[in-house]
Amino acid sequence: MNGKQTSIAQDLEHLFKKMAEANQVFFSEGTRFVKNMSASNLKGEDIVSGQKELLNDSFNQFVRLNIQHATNLVELGIALSKKMSRQFDVKQDEPSSPDTGKPAFVLNVSGPPDSTITTQFLLDSDKTDPVTCHFIRTGYISQQDPARSAAFETVFSPQSFQLHFGEPQKVTIEIKVPADAKEGVYLSNVRVEGFEDRFFSLYVQVVPPNDSSNKSPA
Q: Is residue 41 situated within a structural domain?
């Protein structure tokens, strides 16, 4: 995070410097343009007879270009400033990301391609008031190659429910492993909405089709 903030700050500083240089060039050129017009040897009757419209159009186009260029730079600078400010904002009530910190518990399951893996767990509450729970999970990421992900259809039953103190809720998870799934271990973190930043980790190991054992990932 510090490296990202430093990079944004450097980019913003470079932008402001370029904006100041560009504005200086445009305004100085505009001033020089006006002075050259004033010092020119054009006679009034020549301007009236044909030069006036051309010079006016040229001057107006130059001014509009100057204003538009400066406006674009300012708007870009404001956008980057807001982006940089958001990097420094830390919301005290914002829950942690599901893929950071320590999971409340870990589930390990396995199965071959073109199969449905089923597992269950109990969820209980330490809160005196009823809690409305809802599951939100991340995608499955290969533990051998973090750049590779897998699309495993995952169904929680029930998906949403109200949990009461002293009354654990049994939850069933069905994971459909597609026929083209590559062997390996895949991780998905599941956040339990209603319990702030708590989450659990679900490891799915895709085993060879002829491996009938239900071994857990290492």
A: yes
